[in-house]
Write a structure and sequence with these properties.
Layout (H helix, E strand, L loop, with lengths): L4 E7 L3 H10 L5 E4 L16 E2 L9 H13 L3 E3 L2 E6 L3 H10 L8 E3 L1 H7 L7 E7 L3 E3 L1 H14 L3 E3 L4 E7 L2 E6 L4 E9 L5 H7 L8 E13 L8 E4 L5 E5 L2 E5 L4 E2 L9 H12 L5 E15 L6 E4 L6 E5 L9 H13 L30
Parallel strand pairs: 1-2, 1-12, 2-9, 5-14, 12-20
Antiparallel strand pairs: 3-8, 4-8, 5-7, 6-7, 10-11, 11-12, 13-16, 13-17, 13-18, 14-15, 15-16, 19-20
Helix pairs in contact: 1-5, 1-8, 2-8
Length: about 375
């Protein structure tokens, strides 16, 4: 076996792959293999671009909060605020939401109709209950992605685009990674940061699929009358039926859909856009003048909807960094730091000290199974 042997080869150069590569590169020789013409083409480039403390649920909060400090200190966040809204019949759901985040460190406050109206104009009268989250902010997704790409390049990481993995074999402790265009890469460890393709890559490597399922999420940009105020908070249905936020006088609207999908270049369906508009019109009195733009992306979830970080217990040298749902960008700093510490055997630092890494280990899907050797 000849050629440069990297310590880690990372499949995928979206936010997940770029961030974990940047963290590993300070300690190891790393290459990153990106299937597309440029990094960030899929989920990273189609994000709704917000950092929201409660997003992903209480199990994700330990990753979100330290990531927020990192993002805020480096100027990647721009304050907005978030408002979960409900009707009178949703009171029990609102109560349960508040209880679920007790003791997690998030800052949320219960509001009534008056507080709702003060923050979101034109809401229909039956929307009377709200939960205010002041810390929610927009993320400069492109800036954060470029931060990690610049960092990994400065550290000497080999970034190969149009390097779609075609086959994976392991011999004498080394992965031989063959690409569709004939290029080949060698590495002691293979990091699966392939997003919607995570289970596909795992299968190619001889690992068990974990059930990381891609789900399509649709967003439409609307021109509305009157124009959406710049200080409009991210507004989310407590039952998960929609969210919207303003952008330069327009509204970004999603039906908060999770449509099962094969890994692909996701495209919006007219039915999903129509569903979003129908729900929006039942919530607000804004008049929609035009749908100016629409797009879709894939968010990939493990069965328990928590991310998967660390070594596969059955396949030596195969490491997971996947299943990050819709919260992968807002948790990227802490997730990448934690992932690198796990993969390199390093101790926790100030960013990761309060994170229980075992909660995200792939071992939770392999209870009772013994690791293979070879």
């Amino acid at each position: 076996m000849t050629g440069t042997v990297h310590d880690f080869a990372i499949v995928g150069a979206g936010m997940a792959g770029a961030s974990i590569a940047a963290e590993l590169a300070a300690h190891a020789r790393v290459c990153v293999l990106e299937a597309e013409d440029a990094p960030g083409y899929h989920s990273t480039g189609r994000s709704a671009a917000f950092w929201e403390e409660c997003y992903g649920g209480p199990g994700v909060v330990p990753l979100t909060l330290p990531s927020g400090r990192f993002l805020r200190e480096r100027g990647f966040l721009n304050g907005r605020g978030a408002l979960y809204v409900g009707r009178g019949e949703d009171r029990a759901t609102m109560d349960a939401f508040m209880r679920s985040f007790e003791g997690t460190g998030v800052t949320i406050e219960r509001l009534g109709r008056e507080g709702l109206e003060a923050r979101v104009p034109h809401m229909r009268a039956d929307w009377v209950d709200a939960i205010w989250e002041p810390a929610c902010a927009d993320i400069d997704v492109a800036g954060l992605h470029q931060h990690y790409l610049k960092k990994l390049r400065a550290a000497g990481v080999d970034l190969a685009c149009r390097a779609r993995v075609a086959n994976l074999t392991r011999e004498d402790g080394i992965w031989r990674i063959g690409c569709e265009d004939g290029r080949e890469f060698l590495a002691a460890n293979l990091v699966n940061a392939a997003g919607a393709w995570a289970d596909t890559v795992a299968h190619m490597a001889g690992a068990q699929r974990l059930g990381i399922d891609p789900k399509r999420r649709t967003v439409a940009q609307l021109r509305v009358s009157p124009a959406a105020p710049d200080d409009l908070p991210l507004t989310l249905d407590i039952n998960g039926g929609f969210y919207f936020k303003s952008d330069n006088g327009r509204l970004w609207l999603s039906p908060h859909d999770e449509v099962p999908s094969e890994p692909c270049d996701a495209a919006p369906e007219e039915m999903d856009v129509a569903l979003a508009i129908d729900r929006f019109e039942k919530v607000t009195e804004w008049r929609i003048e035009a749908v100016e733009h629409r797009w879709a992306g894939l968010r990939s979830f493990a069965p328990d909807r928590l991310p998967v970080y660390g070594p596969d217990p059955l396949v030596p040298g195969f490491l997971w960094f996947a299943g990050q749902g819709g919260f992968g960008i807002q948790t990227a700093p802490a997730a990448a730091r934690l992932g690198a510490q796990i993969m390199l055997g390093l101790k926790a630092d100030a960013m990761t000290a309060d994170i229980d890494a075992s909660a995200y280990s792939p071992e939770r899907f392999h209870a009772g199974e013994k690791a293979r050797t070879g």
